[in-house]
Design goal:
Number of strands: 5
Number of domains: 2
Oligomer: single chain
Strand order of the largest sheet: 1-2-3
Shape: extended
Structural class: mainly alpha
Number of helices: 9
Order of helices and strands: EEEEEHHHHHHHHH
Largest sheet: 3 strands, antiparallel
Length: 277
Amino acid sequence: MLLPLKPIIDRRPRRDGASVISSQYCYSSDKRTLLYTGLAVPPRYWNKKLLRISQDLPPEYGKADQPNLRLHKMVRTAEDIVSFGMQQKVEDPMAFLKMIFQPDFDAATLPERVRQLAEARVDEAIANLDFFHQLDDYIKTKTRKVSTGMVRSYKVMKHRLLAFQKRRKQKITFDSFYYNFYEAFVNYLTYERRHMGRKTVIRGLKKNSVGASIKQLRIFLRDRMRRKIILPIDLTDYKILDEETDAIYLTLPEIRNLYKRIPGRYAAGADHENQRA
C-alpha cells in the first residue's frame, strides 16, 4: 500500500554539523507531521533522489548501510501503523501515528499496544468525572480535528455554562442534566445572559445563539456516553432552538438608483456613459 510517508533531512545543521533525519507523514496537503528517527548526518551526505544516506559517508559516521536499513524499517513501521489505524477506522490517523510510533517500535505488537493505550485512556478519563474537566478534555481532543471557529464555539458554550453555574450557585455535574436543567439554562441564555463586548448592557441572546450552545452541549454529552465515560442520559427534550433569518437583496435597478444618489458619483457615471456612447 502506497502511503504518503518518506524520510527527509533538516537542512539546518546542528552545532556538530549534522542534520536530523525524520520520517515525514503527509495526512493532507496542509496536515503533516515529522517522526523522530534518532539518525543524523551532514546534509551533503543525504541523497535527495534516493531518499537515503549516501555511500560516501565519512568513516567517523560509520557505514551508510546500517542507518539506511534502520531508516527503511522505521518507514515501513510507520506505514504499518497508519494502515492499522485506517483498518480500525480511527478518527485521526496522524494523531494515531504520533501516539504509537517510536524508532524501535515492533509493528507486530500493534494490537496489544492499542489495547493498552485504550485502557489507559479510559482509566484516565474515569479517574476524573468532573464535568468541566471532561469538557476541557473534549475540547483538547477536537482542537486538531475541527476548524478554529468550531473550537471557539466549544469554548463559548463552556463559558456560558460556567456563568450559568455561578448564577445558579449550583455545581454542574453529569447528574445535572434532567429537563429542568435544560429549561433553566435556555431561560438564562434567552433572558439573562449579557452580550459580550458591548458598552451598553444588553441581556438575552438570540434563538440561534442559544441553539448553538445547546447543540454543542448535546454533542459533548453523547461523546462521553459513547466512550462509556458516563452513564446514558436522556436528551430527548434537549431541543435545538433556531429561527428563520431574512436575507435582503437589491435588484440591479435599485443598486443603480442608490449609486446615482452618492454625491459626485452621478456626474462621473454620466461622463462615462457619454464616452461609451
